[in-house]
Design brief:
Helix content is 49%, strand content 12%. The radius of gyration is 21 Å and the shape is flat. Strands 5-6-7 form a three-stranded antiparallel β-sheet. The chain has a two-stranded antiparallel ribbon with strand order 1-2. Helix 1 packs across helix 3. With 205 residues, the protein is α+β, with helices and mostly antiparallel strands. It is built from seven helices and seven strands. A hairpin with a 2-residue loop joins strand 5 and strand 6.
Length: 205
């Protein structure tokens, strides 16, 4: 799906009015959304998107996309959504094509578009990528891009020409814990990948 930066403000406000009754709060959020943006000394009005980096932005965008959740549920589809990424589970290619058309029509009404690069119909045995995982009927592994991101972070913290100090080790351990907390779960099958990355990290150190 297109990013949260493209959600029209009227869609966000419509979603908010379904869950917030306090007019003062609604007015405050509307003013926050419509605040102008300054670029190179020039002020531009905003009519779409949520404030970049704002603590409310993910919440506001998810409230707006609740409409999509409701419509998918009413249509009888099983799905998983996190932020602007989602998977719709279907029993056949025909049903998947119908689901694709259904979602495309609905998010067009929200002023959004599906990302051609990230949208596809896939068979479960062939697998698909979602939230950093490569998911198939047999495994839920870190996708290659996630592995490379880990390596890039570790490379940035290590050199092979001298022993690492305590501060560097603290940072390295922080990266390792972060990836372990996210990818090592009852859902995932990443034991082999973690063994490989452990060996690779030790060689870097």
């Amino acid at each position: 799906m297109a990013s949260f930066d493209e959600i029209p403000h009227h869609v966000i406000m419509t979603g908010l009015r379904h869950v917030v009754a306090d007019g003062n709060i609604l007015n405050l959020i509307e003013r926050l959304l419509s605040a102008s943006v300054m670029e190179e000394g020039v002020t531009y009005p905003t009519t779409v998107g949520t404030p970049q980096g704002g603590v409310l932005s993910p919440l506001l965008a998810n409230i707006a996309l609740n409409f999509l959740d409701w419509q998918l549920d009413l249509a009888g589809y099983r799905f998983v959504r996190y932020a602007d990424g989602f998977v719709v589970l279907c029993r056949s290619k025909h049903e998947a094509e119908e689901a694709h058309s259904f979602v495309e029509r609905y998010i067009t009404d929200l002023g959004l578009t599906l990302s051609p690069e990230k949208t596809k119909i896939a068979r479960f045995p062939d697998g698909f990528v979602f939230l950093g995982f490569e998911i198939t009927h047999r495994a839920r592994r870190m996708r290659k891009k996630s592995v490379e991101k880990y390596k890039t972070k570790i490379r940035g913290l290590t050199t092979r020409c001298h022993n690492l100090d305590a501060k560097a080790m603290v940072k390295i351990n922080s990266v390792i814990r972060g990836y372990a907390n996210y990818f090592a779960s009852e859902f995932s099958t990443v034991t082999r990948q973690f063994r490989y990355l452990d060996h690779w990290t030790r060689k870097r150190i």
